[in-house]
Amino acid sequence: MTIKIGDKLPNATVFEFFHEETEGCSLGPNKFEVEKELAGKTVAILALPGAYTPTCSAKHVPGFIAHFDAFKAKGVDEIWCISVNDAFVMGMWGKSLGAEGKVRMLADGSAEFTKKIGMELDLTSRGMGVRSNRYSMLVKDGVVTQFNVEAPGVFENSTAEKLLSQI
Questions:
Q1: How far apart are CA 105 and CA 146, in angstroms?
Q2: What is the pLDDT of residues 24-56, one digit of tens each?
Q3: Is 8 inside any structural domain?
Q4: Number of domains, the chain
Q5: Rounded Cα gap, residues 165 and 139, in angstroms
Q6: Where's the Thioredoxin domain (predicted)?
Q7: Cα separations (Å) of 158 from 45, 105, 131, 148, 161?
Q8: For residue 1, is it within any domain?
Q9: pTM exceeding 0.85
Q10: Would you place residue 21 in the very low, low, confident or very high pLDDT band (cuts 50, 70, 90)?
Q11: What is the pLDDT of residues 53-111, one digit of tens each?
Q12: Tell me, what CATH number does 147's domain have?
């Protein structure tokens, strides 16, 4: 089943790497439950095939970082980037992009969340294994209110600008 507008996102465990210890979060990967993290919040989510890949690094994530203030001004509490990578890779990638404090770089290393929402993309023939399809969505209190999915190899519908225009 593929998630759609009006659906509640399923619970899954994702991981986030912290470079510095904070209250309630230790240094290194920390485990979070999607359902708890979304409760009472408006969250913009972008997902992509992989950290450090060309389109993801040059366009997708940087667009959300650049428009952080505009998302906040429209009532978005958090921006999440989800990828089927491990938390260490997502943490270092986020640091290299300047995402800290703007975009939460969440690792779905086993594709648990990605599979539950029907967005897995099989790239085993290209040596990348199972990944996430590229998309963006707006979620209010766990319910999908906007959902923009890309065809494989395309980057048009899931941009920060498009999601901002839908809020």
A1: 20
A2: 555 678 899 999 999 999 999 999 988 888 777
A3: no
A4: 1
A5: 15
A6: 3-167
A7: 10, 17, 16, 5, 8
A8: no
A9: yes
A10: low
A11: 877 787 899 999 999 999 999 999 999 999 999 999 999 999 999 999 999 999 999 99
A12: 3.40.30.10
81 is catalytic: no
**Average pLDDT, stretch 131-160?**
93
Which residues have C-beta within 8 Å of that of residue 45, sequence separation ≥ 6? 79, 80, 81, 82, 136, 137, 138, 139
Contact 150, 49 (CB under 8 A): no
pLDDT of 2 over the 60 cut: yes
Of residues 14, 43, 56, 82, which has the active-site annotation? 56
Of 84, 100, 82, nearest in space to 92 by CA: 100
CA–CA dist 46, 141 (Å, integer): 17
Tokens of 67: 């428009």
Backbone angles phi, psi at 135, to 5 degrees: -160, 170
- Written as six digits, the tokens of 10 are 């399923």
Query: Tokens 């779905």 map to which residue?
Result: 108
Domain residue limits at 155? 13-165
Structure tokens at 22: 């904070």
Predicted pLDDT at 125: 74
Does residue 67 sit within a domain?
A: yes
Distance of CA 92 to the CA centre of its chain: 15
Cβ distance 36 to 142 under 8 Å? no
